[in-house]
């Protein structure tokens, strides 16, 4: 009798789970074959995605070359929850995979290894399940205006967190830990009450001392995670480059700084490229010559 009950339960689970499964789309963007798209993680949209067990992802190839999505994992690498391979996806076509195990999956295109993405697979929605929206991270200055992440100024880092589960938890510590290599550069927490199917924003203030690449780790408790443990837990993270003093004008634009608010290095002036509208900083002499030749516009 007991074995019959267990079998019945398994059958119910098998039948019910797919009813709640969802399919998510990830675009392999046009121009992904070019290495430049890795700046700002723009080869894939979105670059990182969070789903639950039994959900599937469809990669849509919008590039002019074929691509393949394969798990990054070596024989002694236990960080990845499992392996998958979409096979070759020709231009205009798509490949899919259904995730049946929770964990973190890092993947790439073996022919174009600069195309790298992450899938975070969480368990069901029966409990509070906090999900950081990594694509919504904003940097602002003391005046509340968008800014590129640079040294020599306080950075206000805002990120959206949602409770995609059904549970109604008490006030929760939402943390941000920032690492430069293995060294902890910043750690802060903000307490929020995020009910089921609701979202809120956590904001942290940090003044970077040194330029370079940093790892931002977002957590939903007060645990002190390290770089060695982020891949062994359902922890959301993203890497950013902190610029020294003033970021290049194109980087400022990418972080949402309006053209009239872009800052140039001392002695340089701001103008726009006539063909693309992209900002450029150069000496007044250079800008005058380029204006005369029709390369720039005021």
UniProtKB/TrEMBL annotation:
| All copies of domain CARDB, residue ranges | 146-235
Tell me the InterPro entries matching this sequence.
Answer: CARDB (IPR011635), Cupredoxin (IPR008972), ET_Amicyanin (IPR052721), Ig-like_fold (IPR013783)
Transmembrane regions: none
What PANTHER family does this protein map onto? Answer: BLL1555 PROTEIN
Q: What is this protein called?
A: CARDB domain-containing protein
> Which organism is the protein's source?
Nitrosopumilus piranensis
């Amino acid at each position: 009798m007991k074995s019959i009950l267990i079998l019945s339960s398994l059958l119910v689970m098998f039948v019910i789970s797919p009813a709640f499964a969802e399919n998510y789309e990830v675009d392999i963007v046009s121009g992904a074959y070019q290495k430049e798209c890795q700046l700002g993680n723009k080869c894939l949209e979105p670059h990182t995605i969070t789903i639950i067990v039994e959900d599937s992802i469809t990669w849509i190839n919008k590039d002019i070359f074929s691509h393949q999505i394969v798990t990054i994992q070596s024989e002694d690498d236990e960080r990845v929850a499992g392996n998958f391979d979409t096979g070759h996806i020709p231009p205009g076509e798509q490949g899919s995979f259904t995730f049946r195990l929770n964990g973190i999956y890092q993947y790439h295109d073996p022919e174009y290894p600069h195309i790298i993405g992450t899938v975070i697979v969480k368990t069901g929605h029966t409990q509070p399940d906090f999900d950081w929206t990594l694509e919504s991270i904003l940097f602002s200055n003391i005046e509340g205006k968008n800014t590129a992440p640079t040294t020599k100024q306080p950075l206000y880092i805002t990120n959206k967190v949602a409770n995609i589960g059904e549970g109604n938890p008490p006030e929760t510590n939402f943390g941000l830990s920032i690492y430069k290599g293995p060294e902890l550069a910043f750690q802060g927490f903000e307490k929020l009450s995020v009910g089921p199917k609701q979202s809120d924003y956590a904001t942290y203030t940090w003044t970077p001392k040194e330029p370079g690449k940093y790892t931002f780790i977002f957590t939903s408790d007060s645990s002190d995670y390290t770089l060695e443990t982020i891949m062994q837990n359902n922890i959301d993270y993203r890497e950013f480059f902190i610029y020294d003093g003033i970021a290049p004008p194109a980087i400022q634009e990418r972080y949402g700084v309006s053209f009239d608010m872009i800052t140039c290095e001392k002695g340089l002036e701001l103008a726009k490229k006539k063909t693309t509208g992209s900002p450029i900083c150069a000496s007044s002499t250079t800008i005058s010559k380029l204006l005369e030749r029709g390369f720039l516009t005021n």
